[in-house]
Protein backbone atom coordinates (compact mmCIF):
# COMPACT_ATOMS: atom_id res chain seq x y z
CA UNK A 1 0.00 0.00 0.00
CA UNK A 2 1.76 3.16 -1.18
CA UNK A 3 -0.24 5.38 1.16
CA UNK A 4 1.34 3.80 4.22
CA UNK A 5 4.78 4.98 5.15
CA UNK A 6 7.43 3.79 7.52
CA UNK A 7 9.85 0.91 7.65
CA UNK A 8 7.99 -2.21 6.60
CA UNK A 9 9.89 -5.24 7.92
CA UNK A 10 10.78 -7.84 5.42
CA UNK A 11 7.04 -7.97 5.82
CA UNK A 12 4.29 -9.39 3.75
CA UNK A 13 6.28 -12.01 1.87
CA UNK A 14 4.11 -14.28 -0.21
CA UNK A 15 4.61 -17.87 -1.22
CA UNK A 16 1.91 -19.37 -3.40
CA UNK A 17 1.63 -23.15 -3.63
CA UNK A 18 -0.25 -24.96 -6.38
CA UNK A 19 -0.38 -28.59 -7.35
CA UNK A 20 -2.54 -31.47 -8.52
CA UNK A 21 -4.12 -31.97 -5.10
CA UNK A 22 -7.76 -31.26 -4.34
CA UNK A 23 -6.89 -29.33 -1.18
CA UNK A 24 -4.78 -26.93 -3.29
CA UNK A 25 -7.37 -26.55 -6.03
CA UNK A 26 -7.51 -22.78 -5.55
CA UNK A 27 -3.88 -22.47 -4.46
CA UNK A 28 -2.45 -21.64 -1.07
CA UNK A 29 -0.70 -18.44 -0.07
CA UNK A 30 1.57 -18.07 2.91
CA UNK A 31 2.05 -14.58 4.33
CA UNK A 32 4.89 -13.98 6.78
CA UNK A 33 3.92 -11.32 9.30
CA UNK A 34 5.85 -9.93 12.29
CA UNK A 35 3.05 -10.30 14.83
CA UNK A 36 0.32 -8.05 16.08
CA UNK A 37 0.44 -5.21 18.54
CA UNK A 38 3.65 -3.99 16.88
CA UNK A 39 4.70 -0.55 18.12
CA UNK A 40 5.18 0.44 14.47
CA UNK A 41 1.71 1.52 13.39
CA UNK A 42 2.32 0.75 9.72
CA UNK A 43 3.30 -2.86 10.42
CA UNK A 44 0.43 -3.27 12.87
CA UNK A 45 -2.10 -2.06 10.28
CA UNK A 46 -0.67 -4.40 7.65
CA UNK A 47 -0.79 -7.36 10.04
CA UNK A 48 -4.40 -6.67 10.95
CA UNK A 49 -5.39 -6.21 7.30
CA UNK A 50 -3.79 -9.53 6.31
CA UNK A 51 -5.30 -11.27 9.33
CA UNK A 52 -8.81 -10.19 8.27
CA UNK A 53 -8.16 -11.71 4.81
CA UNK A 54 -6.97 -15.08 6.17
CA UNK A 55 -8.98 -18.27 5.92
CA UNK A 56 -6.42 -20.16 8.00
CA UNK A 57 -3.91 -18.86 10.53
CA UNK A 58 -0.67 -20.53 11.54
CA UNK A 59 0.88 -18.97 14.63
CA UNK A 60 4.54 -19.74 15.29
CA UNK A 61 6.47 -19.40 18.52
CA UNK A 62 9.90 -20.56 19.61
CA UNK A 63 9.61 -23.91 21.35
CA UNK A 64 11.17 -22.81 24.63
CA UNK A 65 8.37 -20.32 25.18
CA UNK A 66 5.52 -21.74 23.08
CA UNK A 67 3.31 -22.34 26.13
CA UNK A 68 4.10 -18.99 27.77
CA UNK A 69 4.79 -16.44 25.00
CA UNK A 70 2.14 -13.79 25.64
CA UNK A 71 2.16 -12.31 22.14
CA UNK A 72 1.76 -15.68 20.42
CA UNK A 73 -0.89 -16.82 22.87
CA UNK A 74 -2.79 -13.54 22.40
CA UNK A 75 -2.77 -14.20 18.64
CA UNK A 76 -3.95 -17.72 19.31
CA UNK A 77 -6.82 -16.50 21.51
CA UNK A 78 -7.82 -14.01 18.80
CA UNK A 79 -7.73 -16.68 16.09
CA UNK A 80 -9.76 -19.13 18.20
CA UNK A 81 -12.33 -16.40 18.72
CA UNK A 82 -12.46 -15.26 15.08
CA UNK A 83 -11.98 -18.38 12.96
CA UNK A 84 -13.86 -21.66 12.60
CA UNK A 85 -12.47 -24.71 14.42
CA UNK A 86 -9.83 -26.42 12.31
CA UNK A 87 -8.65 -23.18 10.69
CA UNK A 88 -5.84 -22.56 13.16
CA UNK A 89 -2.47 -24.21 13.73
CA UNK A 90 0.02 -23.41 16.46
CA UNK A 91 3.63 -24.25 15.63
CA UNK A 92 6.44 -24.53 18.15
CA UNK A 93 9.66 -23.94 16.23
CA UNK A 94 13.24 -24.86 17.12
CA UNK A 95 12.20 -28.08 18.83
CA UNK A 96 15.70 -29.34 18.04
CA UNK A 97 17.13 -27.04 20.70
CA UNK A 98 16.98 -29.63 23.48
CA UNK A 99 19.09 -30.59 26.45
CA UNK A 100 18.48 -34.34 26.90
CA UNK A 101 19.83 -34.43 30.46
CA UNK A 102 17.57 -31.57 31.51
CA UNK A 103 14.48 -33.23 30.02
CA UNK A 104 15.39 -36.54 31.67
CA UNK A 105 15.83 -34.83 35.05
CA UNK A 106 12.75 -32.59 34.84
CA UNK A 107 10.48 -35.43 33.73
CA UNK A 108 12.01 -38.14 35.91
CA UNK A 109 12.84 -40.29 32.90
CA UNK A 110 15.20 -43.28 33.01
CA UNK A 111 18.87 -42.42 32.42
CA UNK A 112 18.78 -44.62 29.30
CA UNK A 113 16.33 -42.25 27.60
CA UNK A 114 17.54 -41.38 24.10
CA UNK A 115 17.66 -37.90 22.60
CA UNK A 116 14.68 -38.82 20.37
CA UNK A 117 12.65 -40.09 23.34
CA UNK A 118 13.46 -36.98 25.37
CA UNK A 119 12.43 -34.77 22.45
CA UNK A 120 9.15 -36.64 22.09
CA UNK A 121 8.35 -36.31 25.82
CA UNK A 122 9.13 -32.60 25.80
CA UNK A 123 7.15 -32.02 22.59
CA UNK A 124 4.08 -33.76 23.99
CA UNK A 125 4.34 -31.79 27.22
CA UNK A 126 4.31 -28.44 25.39
CA UNK A 127 1.46 -29.56 23.11
CA UNK A 128 -0.56 -30.59 26.16
CA UNK A 129 0.09 -27.26 27.91
CA UNK A 130 -1.14 -25.27 24.90
CA UNK A 131 -4.14 -27.56 24.36
CA UNK A 132 -5.19 -27.06 28.00
CA UNK A 133 -5.96 -23.45 27.09
CA UNK A 134 -7.02 -23.77 23.43
CA UNK A 135 -8.53 -26.55 21.33
CA UNK A 136 -6.16 -26.28 18.38
CA UNK A 137 -3.72 -28.45 16.52
CA UNK A 138 -0.22 -27.95 17.87
CA UNK A 139 2.82 -28.91 15.81
CA UNK A 140 6.49 -29.00 16.67
CA UNK A 141 9.19 -28.42 14.08
CA UNK A 142 12.83 -29.35 14.12
CA UNK A 143 15.75 -29.12 11.75
CA UNK A 144 17.27 -32.16 13.52
CA UNK A 145 16.29 -35.72 12.65
CA UNK A 146 16.19 -37.57 15.97
CA UNK A 147 15.29 -40.85 14.32
CA UNK A 148 18.87 -41.31 13.09
UniProtKB/TrEMBL annotation:
Transmembrane segments: none
PANTHER family, alphabetized: NUCLEAR GTPASE, GERMINAL CENTER-ASSOCIATED, TANDEM DUPLICATE 3
Protein name: G domain-containing protein
Amino acid sequence: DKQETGQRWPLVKWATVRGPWECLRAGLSFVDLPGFGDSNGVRDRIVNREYRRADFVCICSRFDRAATDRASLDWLAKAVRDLPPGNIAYVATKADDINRDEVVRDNKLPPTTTQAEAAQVRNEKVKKEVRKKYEVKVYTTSAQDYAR
